[in-house]
């Protein structure tokens, strides 16, 4: 499958036909009226609770429907008292959709590269450095190690992270995989995988590594570990929203860049 075919498959299965990623969330397909005689637009959004992801996953818009769609989403999520994210992709239309989102008050975060690999083509070995082992995360103690790894890797804390991870474990135990890499008692990296039933895709998240442990193969080992689990459960593809730091590693492993994505955030 070439990159264009893969992007079309990703758009269809992971965006247009997306399934809610939390027990209390729902996916809605909302029509946006067009001008008289013109084409209507469509927005696919997830609506969840306070601890869930709320936002726009996919849209089919043009210059005549984009502004109305943006205004409708800010009004809708605002009426629920929810911040939300509009997940914009580089091939979304209209071409100036990002500018329109900024004009409506949404703030862009750093751009990431959407990368996909066929699991069968990925290296099978973990290649862990000496003294490092991988621990599956199944409860609060493991989540605490993940949060600590995140803080050590990025030099900042995320007050809601622990609660969000615990909620994922409790609400989606069959489709959420978490793992932490430790050197002795010290967490040096942590990562998560979300399985998307019926799509063939599993998505990789996290993987931030403590600075003193970077360049030793820990991130690659976390990718291989999760790929093996996904393959055992019948999944064919791995997808990552890759940062500038992880993109070169993923390319060497066999991941192919498909497009870019930019989170546009709206905060009340």
Automatic annotation (TrEMBL):
Regions annotated as coiled coil: none
PROSITE patterns: GNAT (PS51186)
Protein name per its UniProtKB record: N-acetyltransferase domain-containing protein
Stored InterPro entries: Acyl_CoA_acyltransferase (IPR016181), GNAT_dom (IPR000182)
Domain N-acetyltransferase: residue ranges: 132-268
CDD domains, alphabetized: NAT_SF
Pfam families: Acetyltransf_1 (PF00583)
Source species taxonomy: Bacteria, Bacillati, Actinomycetota, Actinomycetes, Streptosporangiales
Organism: Streptosporangium pseudovulgare
């Amino acid at each position: 499958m070439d990159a264009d075919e893969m992007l079309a498959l990703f758009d269809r299965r992971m965006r247009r036909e997306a399934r809610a990623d939390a027990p209390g969330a729902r996916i809605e397909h909302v029509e946006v009226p067009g001008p008289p005689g013109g084409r209507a637009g469509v927005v696919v959004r997830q609506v969840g609770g306070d601890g869930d992801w709320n936002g726009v996953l996919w849209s089919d818009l043009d210059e005549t429907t984009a502004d109305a769609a943006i205004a409708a989403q800010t009004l809708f999520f605002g009426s629920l008292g929810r911040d939300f994210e509009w997940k914009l992709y580089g091939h979304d239309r209209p071409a100036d959709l990002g500018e329109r989102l900024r004009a409506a008050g949404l703030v862009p975060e750093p751009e990431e590269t959407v990368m996909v690999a066929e699991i069968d083509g990925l290296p099978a070995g973990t290649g862990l450095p000496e003294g490092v082992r991988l621990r599956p995360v199944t409860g609060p103690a493991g989540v605490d190690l993940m949060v600590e790894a995140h803080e050590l890797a990025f030099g900042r804390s995320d007050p809601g992270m622990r609660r969000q991870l615990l909620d994922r474990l409790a609400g989606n135990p069959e489709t959420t995989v978490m793992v932490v890499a430790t050197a002795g008692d010290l967490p040096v990296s942590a990562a998560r995988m979300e399985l998307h039933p019926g799509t063939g895709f599993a998505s990789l998240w996290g993987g931030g590594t403590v600075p003193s442990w970077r360049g030793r193969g820990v991130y690659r080992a976390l990718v291989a570990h999760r790929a093996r689990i996904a393959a055992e459960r019948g999944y064919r593809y791995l997808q990552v929203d890759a940062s500038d730091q992880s993109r070169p590693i993923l390319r060497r492993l066999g991941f192919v860049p498909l497009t870019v994505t930019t989170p546009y955030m709206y905060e009340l």
